[in-house]
Design brief:
The protein has 1 helix and no strands. With 65 residues, the chain is mostly helical. The protein has one domain. The longest helix is centred in the middle third of the chain and has 56 residues.
Length: 65
């Protein structure tokens, strides 16, 4: 009986640790995805601001206005 109980205990501990590892990997992946997404948004935002600044700096009114 004690052998079965120790095997069951070992099985439960390994299951819990593998579930914990899977949760950790998933959380790491989600955090990385959001991090990369925010960096790409910042790059896009900077690029847009740069384009708007260049357009405003080089803007000339229509002739005759």
């Amino acid at each position: 009986m004690s052998i079965l109980y120790s095997d069951f205990k070992k099985f439960v501990v390994t299951s819990i640790s593998s579930i914990e590892r899977n949760i950790r990997i998933t959380a790491y992946f989600i955090i990385n995805t959001f991090f990369i997404f925010s960096i790409s948004l910042k790059i896009t935002d900077y690029h847009t601001q740069n384009l708007l600044y260049t357009a405003a700096k080089n803007h000339r009114p229509w002739p005759g206005s």
